[in-house]
Each structure stands twice: as C-alpha cells, then as structure tokens.
Amino acid sequence: MYLKHALALSVILGSGASIAQQCPAASQPLSYPASKKVDQTDDYHGVKVADPYRWLENANGDDTKAWIEAQNKLTQGYLETIPARTAIRDRLTKLWNYERFSVPFKEGGRYFYSRNDGLQNQAVLYTVKHLNDAPRLLLDPNTLAADGTVALAGIAVSPDGKYLAYGTAASGSDWNEWKVRDIESGKDTADHLQWVKFSGASWAHDSSGFFYSRYDAPKEATKLADVNYFQKLYFHKMGTPQSDDVLVYDRPDQKEWGFAGHVTDDGKYLIVSISQGTEQKNRVYYKDLGKKDAAMQPLLDDFDASYDFIDNDGPVFYFNSNKDAPKGSIIAIDTRQPQAAKWKMIVPEAQETLQGANVVDQRLVLDSLKDARSQIKVYTLNGKLVREVALPGIGSASGFGGKRSDKETFYSFTGFTTPAAIYRYDVATGKSSLYRQPKVDFDPSAFETRQVFYSSKDGTKVPMFIVSKKGIKLDGSNPTYLYGYGGFNISLTPAFSVANLAWMEMGGVYALPNLRGGGEYGKAWHEAGTKLHKQNVFDDFIGAAQWLIANKYTSPQKLAIGGGSNGGLLVGATMVQRPDLFAAAIPQVGVMDMLRFHKFTIGWGWTSDYGSSDNADEFKALYAYSPLHNLKPGTCYPATLVTTADHDDRVVPAHSFKFVATEQADQAGAAPVLIRIDTKAGHGAGKPTSKQIEEVADRWGFLTKVLGMHVAPDGAAVAGELAKPAAN
C-alpha cells in the first residue's frame, strides 16, 4: 500500500466463517516457541475483543526480541532441511543475472536512466548527452551501504541540468533523506534534508531550489511505528540548511492532509495536490510563482473526485479526472473561470480505464487498460484521436513521459514471459524503435499465457491470467501459485518476474486474478471491494481458486496462495475463511489486525478502503473478516509461511507477529506455521537483489516441501513426481 503516491467466499458460508475439516494424517507437528498471553481486552461498541499478544506490538521490547529470535531459528532450521532450496537459489541467481534498464528521461539537455548489470543489489544511475554516447556513472547506491540496504527513493534533475536531487531509504524504511549532487563533478553539495516521507522533489524553474514535503522529526525510539500526521510543504533553497527552508503550505487544522507540490513545465505555477490518506480523491490548489508573496489559491476544493494534473497552457490546466467519469477523462479548466460549468471536455470517458496521461510534442499520450492489458492512444490537445500506438504484443506498457517541446518519448513493454524492453517513440511519425532489450537465460516459447473470465460468488465476471509451461496436463496435479491484491485502486497487469519464471520451470502454474478493489475497471470496480463491500474481494479470490480446481489445473492439495501488503490481508482472510481450499498460504507483510491497523504509521490513511473500527458499522464488517480475529482453535490450517521485516514502517511487523502467534496456538494439524522475519529490510521497496533471491528461494523451497514437489539439481521439476505432498 502506498499513501497516494501510498478480500470470501464463503461460497458456502457467510463472511468470517471457517469450514470445519478433518486434518489429514501427518508426521509430528512442529514444536513452536512459547508465546505468552496477557490479559488485554478492548471494548468495540459493546463487543469485548481479546488481544492476548498485544505485547508483540512493542518491537523494542526484550520479550519481543527473544520471540523474534526463537521464531527465526525455527523457520531457518525448517528451511535448511529442504533439499531443493539450494538448487532453487542457484537457478534464481542464474536467471536474475541479466542486464536491465529503466525508461530514460531527458532534463537539462541530458538523458538519465538506471542500469543493473545483473546481480547488483541496487541499480546504478547513469547520464549521457546523446543516446549513443558512452554512459557516465552519476550515482551508485551500492556504495552507500556494503550490504546494499540503502536504495534510491526518488530523483529530480534541475531544469538547467546542473543538479540532481536524490532521496535515499535505509533498510527499506519509508523515511527518506534527500541530498543534492553536482552533475558535472559528481560530488554532493552540503544540502541535506531529513524526515521526508511520501514525497518527491520539484525544482523551481530557475534551479534555485526545490519543493518537497516532510513531517516533523519523530521520536527516535519509535520512529518506525508512530502515527504520521501533519505533513508540510517546504521550499529548499540551494546552499542553505534545512532549518532555513521556507514553509510553503500546511494545515494545522487538518492533520490527515498530505501535500504534493509540482512546478509546471513553464515554471509559472506551483500545483499542490492535497490528498487524505489513500482516498482516490484529492483537492488541487495552486500558487502563481511569478507574483511575489502570491497566496495559495484553491481550485478544486470539494474532495469529490480524483484530479491528476497533466500540463497547462498558461492559466488553462489539463487534468486526468474521474469526475462524472468513473473510468477517467481528460478535462481542461481555465483558472480565470474555474466554475464546473465552464470546464472543457477534451477526451471523454471510454470503455477502457484511463490510467495516466502525458503531453509530449504537443500531443496527449493516454495510457489505458483494456481487460488489464495496456492500450496507448495519442490525441491532439483538442481531443482528436491521432493513432493507437502499436505495442509489441499483449502486456504492460509504461513510461511515455516528457515535455510538450520534446519530439520523442520512451516506454517499456513487458509481459509474463517477456522481460521489459525499452522503446523510443517518435510522436510525430508514430514509429517505435527498440532501444534496449534484455537477454534472459530461458526460452519464452516454452511457456504460454491465457486469460480467462470466471464468475465470483455474486455472479460478477472476473478476469484471470494463467501462465505455465506449454502442454501441461489438466488432471488436477499441477502445483499452482494463486497471487492477488484487490485494493487501493491498484491494477495488476502482465509483468515479467524471475521469481515466477523459476516457479514455472519447476512445473508450477502461476495464476493472477484481477480482483475487485483494484483499478482495472475504474472507480466502480475499486469501490466494489472497499469498506462494507470488502468481502467481495475475498469472494473473487476464492472463486478463482474454485475455477482452477474445477477446470483441473490443480487441486486443494496442490494449491498455494500468496500476496503482499493488502494482498497479505487477502491471503490471511481467505485461508481463515476456507482453510480446506488451500494446501499452503504465504501472506507477505500483511495487514492482519483490522481493528488496530490505523494506530500505526500511515495506517490511518487506509480507512478509505477498509473503514475503521471506530465506526460501529465498519467495525462489524472488519471484525467479520480480520485475519487475526477469525483464527479458530482446533482448525486444520494450510501450511503457512508468513514474511515480514524489522524495518517495515508501512505495515508494521506486529501484524504478522500476532497472527503467527495465534495461528501456531490454534493449528490442529501438522502443517507448519512459520514466520520469516527479515533484517535491515522494510515493506519491499528497494530490497537488495541478494535479499530478494534469498527470500524467493525460501518461498519456493517451502512450497516444494509442503506441496510434494520434486526438484532436480538444476531447479526443474522431476517429471512424474508431483503426486503427493511430502510429510511435514
């Protein structure tokens, strides 16, 4: 989850219910570390709710540290006994070792892009004057920490091409520090900003400094858990200390408002997008930078829709908005006549879902989704269709950034079996030319991608991608990894993944449904999976599992589910509601305590999707599906590997700690319930390559054991030996 740029069937039973089942015979269950219980009960609207593992919320407590150490020892001991783990890690390392690039962008007469030569922990930033020049290294994050745990969190180049402002994140934390590098010399200036979170940087047109947002300094001991309120927008002037930064805008009366400042390409205006948590609505204010001491002017202040600023013609501002257009439209607002009746429709709502828009070479480039696949169209600034961009195939395209004076733009294209290639696009001619194409050690022709549509519990049609080796037998014996998210208007589209490729090489099937709660079909699709309707998301996921089983792709004994963050909640909720349907579950950095999530870091911002236990009706819905609160003693739960990290200040690890302590106590069968707690890592962004490989090897290794997969020394499946799960 991200604060704006940052789930059941119970096909048979109602929400929050578990299906009793007979635990299969297996070997002796694991002996879990002791998890003490405390007498902690809370009253929610007259309902008494016990929270016996509340002490695990104190990450710095001695008891918690001892518990973490004991759990990690158990988990690592279990994983080390898995024969396939080493072969999987070796194959992942070989697959991961390929050159990859980011989409280039141009600023100040230079091109900038990042490159990873294969196994570097972090990608390296380069710059060139001309595309065919030998690249010059500008910033290597790998030199910032020996173990690769400091990552770039954002960059912004000054309009004159002299300076690079860059943010860094240590150990995966959302807290960022920003510095400035002289591009010509490659050396940092004295400028240093702290306590920046959920913010980029936007330079003044004269390159004198930049706008950014930050919070007040937190308490050092609790900075990874304390709630984040009262963000403020500042201007940093080059060569001055942060203490001299000018406060541009704040709202002491609105603790939840967040501010994102953006200077228009002509340098005349500061556009301020005001968000409230992850709500898919925002306000827009602006400031005339040409007038000294000009006041901040509200332009769109009703908080009634999303308005993403694209570009401007002087006082006429262009927006991508879902106002009266659930799938998005392009509108123009003249700030001299800002009344809604005076707005001009440039590109009306279409059948496809509008994801983003840019202006390049006096043209609008629109990025849309058609059944979760990319569609790119070019329009004039008056809204006349010029052409549809011919993409290399069915997949995901991203990029198309630039300025209206640019004649070119760049984009990447990827699919489930297509590593991301970079293309240069000539806006005038409509011609795409290949700029960079990675070479990965696999044969894409050996795999196939299908898209199916299945019915959820209420009859809603849901799309799902299924990727596997060609020619698999539909006899119910295929180990299958069903992955989902379903929230926060986020769309899951085809993308290449070394991790998933390795899984499929081992004979696994990868399935990705586009659940309600996401953004694949616009506002209505998103809202159908929020608050009191959140159960729809779980129904969709369980419906995907049932379709895969009914169509003989897999069986409950061969089916694993996974997801991260909000997807971790998805996995937790569905495994609790339908433990009979899955053999394994891997909830990653999940939101598991739906009654207290809003009390930590930026969790309050998720109430737009989830609701809040402070509201009586929303509490009832949350309590009905909260993974932590719906675990039941004496239930046979799937083999479970929970993953989290000690520096996760997005979804604090206490969610995972409390869930695992409870599931271990309640597990009636012998299937393992383990937790993998990474160190010097966070919610996932910026995780070093080495840590990613280790985590994936542990994840797939775990599944080979609990799903009964037999893996050859080269990491491939052993034919004919995918029958019964191995004893745990």
Automatic annotation (TrEMBL):
The keyword Signal applies. Residues 33-437 form the Peptidase S9A N-terminal domain. Keywords: Hydrolase, Protease, Serine protease, Signal. It comes from the Bacteria. It catalyses: Hydrolysis of Pro-|-Xaa >> Ala-|-Xaa in oligopeptides. Residues 495-709 form the Peptidase S9 prolyl oligopeptidase catalytic domain. Transmembrane segments: none annotated. InterPro entries: AB_hydrolase_fold (IPR029058), Pept_S9_AS (IPR002471), Pept_S9A_N (IPR023302), Peptidase_S9_cat (IPR001375), Peptidase_S9A (IPR002470), Prolyl_oligopep/macrocyclase (IPR051167). Residues 1-20 form the signal peptide. It is an enzyme of class 3 (hydrolase). Its EC number is 3.4.21.26. The keyword Ribonucleoprotein does not apply. PROSITE patterns: PRO_ENDOPEP_SER. Belongs to the peptidase S9A family. This is prolyl oligopeptidase. It comes from Collimonas pratensis. The lineage of its organism: Bacteria, Pseudomonadati, Pseudomonadota, Betaproteobacteria, Burkholderiales.
